TrEMBL record:
It comes from Sphaeramia orbicularis. InterPro entries: P-loop_NTPase (IPR027417). It comes from the Eukaryota. This is G domain-containing protein. PANTHER family: INTERFERON-INDUCED PROTEIN 44, INTERFERON-INDUCED PROTEIN 44-RELATED.
Amino acid sequence: MGGYWSSPCKLLKTLQNISSKNKDQHIRVLLYGPTGHGKSSFINTMDTILRGRMTGRALAGTIGGTSFTQQYTTYKITKGEHGTFYPFVFNDIMGFEKDKGVCEEDIKRAMMGHVKDGYMFNPLSTLSTDDPYYNTNPSLSDKAHVLVCVVSASKVRLLSRLMTNMRKVRREASDLGIPQMAILTKIDEACPKVNADLRNVYKSKFVKKQVGLNLLSESLGIPLNCIFPVKNYHSEITPNDDLEMLILMALRQMINFGEDFVNDCKCT
């Protein structure tokens, strides 16, 4: 990893060179996880890095412990010229909460491409087949090609009651053959050494053993090499190369997984 830490420019250029033969085909990344763990902030951070300026299209935060994200939304990221986009999109959904939050069935339907943009999540009921926001005949492009679990490093140990829900979602994705990975956010809040220098993240035994990587891997069954520690832009007003490097490494893996899934689907 040593060479990567110098600058994210090389990896950013690799991502900028990714293209799709079909303008209507893209890699769809579906983010899920507990409320307030950084799903929307992760989207904003990627948007900021890829567009080269601070953005905030995905409303982030919580209101009294309740998910700020209420609506199913697809985020496209502008690429250079107006009207052109990167060949990958991200979907943000309502988070899991202690006694409410997103219904697991809605996540399954989103993975299968049955949920249209604009659908308002309801913790008390799932999307019905006769709802105008139900997509009866989803195309390959409508379906999720990568499922990403987003969890805060500073809160992993507090999630025992929600892990059951998240494991159910993982099993559904596995049954559908969808590749999966995890993002461990807020690593700076979990470890003082990482807060002082993000380059310490892969050296930190605290992050690896006591806080997030091992615990998240054991709890959800996600391999360690599919869990990426990151820090989202939060209070920063200037670019941070180390922060961006961690985000871009995670993004590159998402795209790789998504491309493999789409190619396999086309071959069957």
